[in-house]
Amino acid sequence: MIATTATRMHRFALAFAAIAVALTATSPPARAADPSGVWLSQDGDVKMKIAPCGGAICGNIAWLKQPNDETGKPKVDKNNADAGKRHRPVLGSAVVLGMKPDGADQWSGQVYNAEDGRTYSGHFILTAANSAQLKGCVAIICKTRNWTRSH
Fold first, then answer.
1. CATH code for 37-150?
2. Does the pLDDT value for residue 6 go beyond 90?
């Protein structure tokens, strides 16, 4: 009788393990955290608003500590590689361009840098609930900026 009870317990343990493995295998993948909101740059000179756009995220300049140039006029995208866009305001311009989820807390796509007027492959990575990194890369060389969620 003891052998029968031990055999039943062993079978029960195996069945339970099989069910646990099956449930784990069919669980949905981890969902990405929500990066939506206003983010302040590490230097405190730019705020960027991240919002969903289709199945991706996009980000635009929402605030500049110094929104005007030396003549007192609003800063324009004077370094843009596209000469037709060099007179558009920096305030409101797109920075994070169609980044799609690439893991639980990371999005990949393109990032625009108004400082040099170029678009790079990039990543927006949530490092904590209210902190993130924005990376712009050329080949394997990346430049990273830290951002803090602003309230």
1. 2.40.128.520
2. no
